[in-house]
Write a structure and sequence with these properties.
The chain has about 450 residues and is α/β, with parallel strands linked by helices. It is built from 13 helices and 22 strands.
Length: about 450
């Protein structure tokens, strides 16, 4: 597939790097020659220098045969125009635009992005995706990562196997026998940079990371089994009042049981937060200043969330807060080269906006009736949720650990109002909404699970 990415900054570079692993033909466009040269050289993609909203520039990028254009420049309006030009002049079938301004995201104006208005198939807002991810993690305080599937009734948690875990050296299929009534299933095991789908006789080993799907009401019990303290957050400290920090604070204010403090170095941003937030205490100061952290209550906070525009500031702020006594820490990190510092700095969770943005784009690229998609472990695995049709090869199959193809396992099944954790007792029916986790080499096989036959339209 030919894909044009307009914008060679941090977001565009991250998208190009991830999509390149799927053997797409990538062209990157930017007005900055240096950025284009850096990205095209490092990633071995085609580079075009020019204003991406100009038809002449897109023509030089061979937009005519392109199947998707992704506009992620720093300016919302330019991204919108790029999509309009790509659709109207070059008949590009799928368009994606990064739109950050809150003024465009009001639900009252959603018709603005209808196909007969601004032809944009997917609006991506990395800031909003990051905010949602942070809020989700606060709902599952014991896990390293969490996501929701099956209409929000199943959590996918990533947990560390510690030496004190009751599961050490047991096989993954024993979890039900050891803990009767626990509705949970191990769906992936990761060690170092490698992730794999488990088979029934694979064992839990200290130092590994495991992904487990679990009914919401059983998540606390699962954390206890893994030796993780699962206390609710009551005090939250946020470092950074940019778009992400503001979104998170605004959402947390809905929970009146939470006390939120927000630290921002820039006076103008701090003033804006004071003006627009109602229950959040705003402190104008440097999140790396120990006195400021003390004023923000870092020593007593249940969660310190560092989400400034600078990765190093976020990592250091979390490290300082942890040393001061903070309960848990979350850092926003854009650079893949810095992700490995999490354990060394004692940080509980890392938010990678690149992965969240790519997940949204991949959902548009995947074939079939796909409802949601999540990219894991830097693209080594995906979680895909889709609807099973009559013609799907999944129909009639059961979902034990060894009953699907190698590299694929089931995470959850939503059947009407009923939620099922997969097992050999669960048999797939047409109309089921099934969530599967797959290793990246198994994308084409999984697409057949949710592909719509031609008879569907007759």
């Amino acid at each position: 597939m030919k894909i044009i990415i307009c914008g060679a900054g941090r977001v565009g570079r991250g998208i190009a790097e991830r999509l390149q692993t799927e053997n797409h033909k990538i062209t990157i466009v930017d007005a900055d020659p240096q950025l284009v040269d850096e990205v095209s050289s490092e990633l071995n993609v085609t580079g075009v220098v020019g204003h991406a909203a100009y038809p002449e520039t897109l023509d030089r990028a061979d937009a005519e045969p392109a199947e998707m254009i992704i506009a992620v420049t720093q300016h919302d309006e330019i991204n919108m125009v790029i999509c309009q030009v790509a659709h109207s002049v070059f008949s590009v079938s799928r368009t994606v635009a990064r739109v950050r301004a809150r003024a465009y995201q009001d639900r009252r104006y959603r018709d603005l992005f209808a196909r007969d208005a601004l032809p944009i198939d997917l609006i991506i807002s990395p800031e909003k995706e990051v905010s949602r991810s942070i809020i989700q993690r606060l709902k599952a305080p014991g896990s390293v990562m969490s996501a929701e599937f099956a209409a929000g009734r199943v959590q996918l948690l990533m947990l560390d196997v510690e030496s004190n875990s009751a599961l050490n050296e047991t096989t993954v299929d024993q979890i039900g026998g050891l803990f009767p009534g626990l509705e949970a299933r191990v769906v992936a095991i990761a060690r170092g940079s490698r992730i794999q789908v488990p088979r029934s006789n694979d064992k839990f080993v200290t130092g590994e990371r495991v992904y487990v799907s679990v009914l919401n009401e059983h998540a606390s019990r699962l954390n206890t089994i893994f030796g993780v303290e699962d206390s609710d957050a009551r005090h939250v400290t946020i470092i950074g009042a940019g778009n992400v920090g503001f979104y998170v604070a605004e959402e947390l204010e809905r929970d009146r049981s939470l006390r939120v403090r927000l630290v921002e170095k820039d006076p103008a941003r701090a003033d804006r937060a004071v003006r627009d937030l109602r229950r959040t205490i705003v402190i104008n100061g440097d999140g790396l200043d120990r006195d400021i952290l003390e004023e923000a209550g870092a020593a007593r906070t249940d969660y310190l969330i560092a989400i400034t525009d600078d990765d190093r500031t976020n990592l250091l702020a979390c490290n300082l807060a942890r040393k001061a006594g903070a309960g848990r820490t979350i850092a926003l990190v854009n650079s893949p080269h810095l992700l490995g510092l999490k354990k060394d700095l004692g940080i509980d969770a890392i938010i990678d906006p690149r992965a969240l943005t790519v997940s949204q784009i991949l959902k548009k690229l995947r074939r079939g009736r796909i409802k949601s998609l999540l990219s894991l472990e830097d693209g080594q695995a995906e979680v895909i949720e889709g609807v099973v049709t009559d013609s799907s090869p999944l129909v009639g199959r059961t979902l034990g650990y060894d009953e699907l193809e190698d590299g694929i396992t089931a995470v959850a099944v939503l059947r009407g109002e009923e939620v099922l954790i997969p097992s050999s007792r669960v048999r797939i029916q047409p109309g089921d909404q099934v969530t599967v986790l797959l290793e990246h080499t198994k994308v084409r096989e999984v697409e057949t699970y949710f592909r719509v036959s031609t008879s569907f339209f007759s």
